[in-house]
Amino acid sequence: MYKSFKATMLKYKALTSCKIQETMTFRFGFFTSFIASLVQTFVMLYVWNEVFSQKQTIMGFDKSQMLTYLVVSQCLNAIYGWYNATERNISARIKSGDIVLDLVKPINFNFARFYEGIGMTIIQIIFSGCVLLLFIVFNPSVATPTSFMHFIAFLLSAFFGYVCMFSISLITGLLSFVISGYWGLYYLKKAIIDLLSGALIPIGLLPLVLQRFADYLPFKNIIYTPTMIYMGRISINEIVKQMSIQVIWAFILWQLCKYFYRIMIRRVTINGG
Amino acid sequence: MTVVIEAKNLSKSYESVIREKGLKGAVKSLVSKKTKTIQAVNDISLSINKGEIVGYVGPNGAGKSTTIKMLTGILKPNQGSVQICGIDPFKNRTENAMNIGVVFGQRTQLWWDLPISETYELLRRMYQINDKVYKQNLNDFIEILELETFMSRSVRQLSLGQRMRAEFAAALLHNPKVLFLDEPTIGLDIEVKKNIRKFIKRINDERNVTILLTTHDMKDIEELSSRIVVINHGELIFSGDSQQMSKKFDAKKTIICHLSELVFEEQINLSEYRKQGIQINIDKYSIIIKIDATLPVSGLISKLIEQFPIVDIDIQGPLIEDIVMEAYHV
Fold first, then answer.
1. Is the ipTM beyond the 0.90 threshold?
2. B121: which chain A residues are within 8 Å (Cβ-Cβ)?
3. Which of A170, A271, B163, B222 makes an SS bond possible with B158, Cβ 3.0 to 4.6 Å?
4. Which chain A residue lies closest to B107 (C-alpha atoms)?
5. Average pLDDT per consecutive 10 residues, chain B (330 residues; last block may be shorter)
């Protein structure tokens, strides 16, 4: 039992390690996309700086809190953002027909994509972690986590958010088994997530109708919840509750991935002979 | 004899979108989509024994690749059943994957940006290959396929010949019982082709691997396969060895008599030969005869020798290429 579990783990770990190596060969692309997200963060920082020169607080956020929210959420977004590679990879492999080679491997398709994704994410985490650290050191407005406990809870919550995000990406990717030209779907997904996950602004700043709406959808688990935990803006009880919601959503979305895989695999047609 | 590949009444059809020509057609297709059902494979039954090398041939679009995809568990057949080593490949995809190895000549399973050794390392984990088996196989393949010189180079830097050799090693590391080769020699030079054929033969001899091979190079079929299966328009039209095949598609052998002087049609009673079903033609210094592969030729030749100043005679057995061409047009 233990032995077979270990072998299974090795199987997926090998995928992660290959993906890390592959990502490393694209150092330059990686570095430039990193600079791009840094520039974006700077722009938003200046905008909010200007806003706070007129006003003391906005919807319960003071300047320091808003800047902290901004930097932390942008770092999370960068980590997840790279994740879109999952759906991009799947749809590219479907387009070329190379997907057949993934389907003749003795490995669970969804899990394989997950562990490949981890490989890319590990590198992104290192980059994003450095950015966060740089901001904390050089910008006194950006705060450290409220406490060690909050930091741990933040990491855990970010992981659950990550699983939610991955599952949504995977579902989009699986849909490209039957939809040719996945990019329309991709931009729709990106727009919804940017708005409802709290990637651009805290969800508290959205109109009330949208806030209500966001409560019933999985997206706010991705960025808003972990960021709020980092900032210590929700109570211990609320942390437990929010994390339970995250776990439930992660579970539901992963089940959806399984369901979509089963459906799509029956309808797959292979391009190019 | 144990049956390794067993396919019964396999059928597969696709929905294909019909689009009218040009921009107008493109706009129109946004509103109303017409589809057409294409029957890629129609009622094919196939049974392959352990250790056989079966050449699976047919013109482009005949349904070869679709069949292979159903046999490897990638596509679900609309009708019929498949068993590979007693396992339904679509239902038990991962279980089946352990038993099979696959080489697609037009695709690569190697990681494009990594050295081939990294892909092998990954496959070792993925198939949970025993350390001893892995080392033994890897060393064997490095030696036979001469991979040593480019083991640490990334795949995108390899030539097609090098890549295909690496591809074969990747497909065989886990000791598969069945090997599916979909156009494995496509685009390769003569020498690499020859080496690959030798390798396939050797794998089949030493490891008793059952091989299903699709190709457009009849040399592959001639040198490797113990049985030929021909399909066209999704239907199986022949299964048997090359002799049975030449019988079925009444293959002709060609006799060319080279003469020392010009011949003219009047010198030879063409209609008499043609009555016997012998095609005979004259081309300046030679007489070209096409005759049923099964008929004896000695009488005919001695008659010609008496009549004409023959300096040389070529007899070409029925070329498999011609027979296959014949079969495609049935």
1. no
2. 14
3. B163
4. A98
5. 92 81 76 80 94 92 91 93 95 94 93 94 95 96 94 93 95 96 93 94 95 92 92 91 81 85 77 78 84 80 84 82 78
